[in-house]
Amino acid sequence: MAEEKTAVMAEINVTPMVDVMLVLLIIFMVVTPLIAAGFTLQLPEGVHLKSRPDDPNRVTLGIDRAGTYYLNREPIAKADAQMILTTEFANRPEDKVLYLRADRELPYSDVMAAMVMARAAGARVVAAVSETPAPGSRPLSNQIR
Question: pTM of the prediction?
């Protein structure tokens, strides 16, 4: 019997796999900064605000930087906020306006969650309270993350 030699290649050709991986790497390198960057925006300035003195009869919900809730400057549990606001608005059938004071550094999603919760508690209007910028101050800018 004659020995037959076959031309079997014993090595794996990884060149196509490397090509695909390099293309995917380039795509991820281009797309990742775009996803992480978000976009910048100019926050509205409060130059045309109407000055209103603090009224102790207003329902004011405050949220500090740590996410602690305050109702009329008294700390309340975040879990109890909706129930407390529902009771507060039940006692005021004519005035269902909530004044919301949120820290500037608070994530927007936390502010929106408080607004949705206030509407569920019976607030017809949720008024965001802001401050008048100091004369000569630069406009505020923020980056959404």
Answer: 0.57
